[in-house]
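stage 2 :: seqdesign
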């Protein structure tokens, strides 16, 4: 700890792990995005398609979808507008809440998801899973799960 500021600076080993994590996070997302380009999709598009495809009736309230994808409501609205133009999703009014809207996966969106998912999974395998040492997935999960739980808790505690 720095006696002047009280800051607990990262050790050399902690710094090495942190920097490797940043590199992997940025470069992996960059590569996965590149691998989606031939399908005319971004990672944001794909994440929305996944969320909708895994939801009951392939629909989600816009506010829930914004929370699930960590986007502001206005940013998600612009994203959904672009995806509506591509006929991947549509908006529907919520009968129980006149101000509420649903994002709904269209048949074309479902077909796109089914076509792209195998390629995306192969990309995840090629650029991440298959590069990890044999037997390390459980260890990596155990190391990362507490961080994910903490960050989900932090997010839930914020307005």
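stage 2 :: out
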């Amino acid at each position: 700890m720095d006696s002047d500021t009280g800051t607990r600076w990262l050790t050399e080993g902690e710094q090495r792990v942190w920097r490797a994590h940043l590199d992997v996070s940025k470069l992996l997302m960059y590569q996965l995005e590149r691998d989606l380009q031939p399908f005319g999709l971004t990672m944001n598009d794909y994440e929305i398609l996944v969320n909708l495809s895994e939801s009951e009736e392939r629909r989600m309230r816009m506010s829930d979808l914004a929370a699930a994808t960590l986007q502001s409501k206005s940013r998600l609205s612009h994203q959904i507008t672009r995806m509506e133009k591509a006929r991947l999703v549509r908006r529907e009014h919520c009968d129980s809440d006149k101000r509420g809207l649903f994002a709904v996966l269209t048949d074309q969106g479902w077909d796109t998801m089914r076509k792209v998912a195998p390629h995306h999974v192969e990309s995840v395998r090629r650029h991440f899973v298959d590069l990890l040492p044999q037997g390390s997935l459980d260890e990596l999960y155990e190391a990362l799960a507490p961080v994910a739980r903490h960050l989900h808790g932090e997010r839930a505690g914020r307005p």
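stage 3 :: structure notes
- The beta strands are 59-61, 89-94, 97-105.
- The mean pLDDT is 93.
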